[in-house]
Design a protein that fits this description.
This protein is of the alpha+beta class. Helix content is about 20%, strand content about 40%. It contains 1 helix and 6 strands.
């Protein structure tokens, strides 16, 4: 994913794992436990790309459903 600032493309790229239908970012992990830094990483990708929805997926779990975290960009704080 290229990074643009004030209309200038910077030679610094982020590598998202998967982009689904040009709308949803999937950040894939296979680690013992998800940490807040992993959610922050996905949120940064969402903000930089202008996308609203992403999923953080950890495959190192017994049941895959336990390893999925939904992250949304741009929702008002409650």
């Amino acid at each position: 994913m290229p990074v643009k600032y004030n209309g200038i493309q910077i030679d610094l790229g982020y590598r998202i794992d998967l982009l689904v239908e040009d709308a949803i970012i999937l950040e894939l992990k296979a680690i013992e436990r998800l940490a807040p830094i992993h959610q922050a990483q996905l949120l940064s990708y969402l903000k930089l790309s202008g996308k609203q929805l992403g999923f953080l997926m950890n495959f190192n779990v017994l049941h895959l459903n336990d390893g999925i975290k939904r992250v949304v960009n741009g929702l008002p704080e409650s």
